[in-house]
Amino acid sequence: MQKGRNQKGFTLVELMVVVVIIGVLVAIAVPVYTSVTERAERSAVEANLRTIDGAIMTYYATDPDASTTPLTTLSDLGDYLASTPVGPGAASYGITASTNAPNQRATVSGKVGGKTLAAGTTLETLSWEDD
């Protein structure tokens, strides 16, 4: 005689296979997500540096007296930079100190895109390669 047991549900083996498949998918997705996030941060920093550099060049091109006065802070750009760019993560922006004013460039520092950038890093010296 057959007992009246209800045989619905998953076996332990089936559940373990599902857990392993989910683990493999997570192991693939997390590094890809991290890489995409770092690339996005790096692109944002490069775009912000280009924006500030453009404002600096416009400032010196439109003000003939400016070529003798170096900029000291981003707020000196006034009408040429709508607002100070906010970087991703711990990025902070500034301007290089220069005695030759028209050669001033935007700088960045802080931990961005998986790398710590030294103070005064310009777009030309910016390297995302590992040390």
Rg, rounded, reads 27 Å
Q: Helical content, roughly?
A: 25-40%
Low-confidence stretches: none
Mean pLDDT: 86
**Shape designation:** rod-shaped
Distance between the termini: 74 Å
Give the topology string: H per helix, E per strand: HEEE
Helix-strand category: alpha+beta
Characterize the main sheet. Answer: 3 strands, antiparallel
The percentage of residues in β strands lies in 5-15%
β-strand number? 3
| Major sheet strand order | 1-2-3
* Number of helical regions: 1
What report would you give on this structure?
- There is one protein chain.
- By secondary structure, this protein is an alpha+beta fold.
- It is built from one helix and three strands.
- The chain is rod-shaped.
Throw out a few tags for this protein.
three-stranded antiparallel β-sheet; single chain; 131 residues; rod-shaped; alpha+beta
In short:
This protein is an alpha+beta fold.
SSE topology:
Layout: H1 12-62, E1 92-95, E2 106-112, E3 115-121
Antiparallel strand pairs: 1-2, 2-3
